[in-house]
Amino acid sequence: MTMIVIICVVVIAVVIFGMYMSYNNRALALRKEADAQRGKIEGVHDKMWKVIKQKAEVSEEYRKEFDKIYPEIIAGRYANDSGSGMKWIQEANPEFDTSLYLDLMQAIEIQRSHFATAQERMLDIIRQHETLCASMPATWFINATNKQKIEYEIISSTKTKTILETGLDDDVDVFKK
């Protein structure tokens, strides 16, 4: 009979130790994943601003060059020509290519989306960690170090933070300066 009691105690101890290890390892893994996600968020944010800035610089440089050469092309065509004021209707004049601006707008949208996704992943990691630490029986087994809250402040804009504080979002004029 004592052998059965000893076996039961050993089995219970092994199960409890296994649960302790399992829950603590999961909490630790989420903390490490959060640390890695912070680095990813920084990398995504850095890439986002570099792509947007450089594409905007290319578009602006194109606009400047077009502004510089277009008057010269038109002036050269009609410099010594009399009575050809309406000739421009029949000719194919150089056109300003707006595709660089479309590309810039798409890059902004895509890069901002990647950044938002990286932040959303961080919030998901935090949610998983908090749920694990608060749920039974995990809460009984996770040590204090692994229970510590994962700190992260959402990267946002002053406008968004103000809207969240006031509860008002009535600035709907897109082109208001």
Task: Give an overview in words.
The chain has 177 residues and is an all-alpha fold. Helix content is 76%, strand content 0%. The chain contains 6 helices and no strands. Helix 1 runs antiparallel to helix 3 (99-134). The longest helix is centred in the first third of the chain and has 77 residues, at 2-78. The radius of gyration is 31 Å and the shape is elongated. The termini are far apart.
How would you describe the shape?
A: elongated
Low-confidence stretches: none
What do the pLDDT scores average to?
87
- Tell me the distance between the termini: 85 Å
The proportion of strand residues reads: under 5%
Class by SSE composition: mainly alpha
Compose a concise summary of this entry.
The chain is mainly alpha-helical. It is built from six helices and no strands.
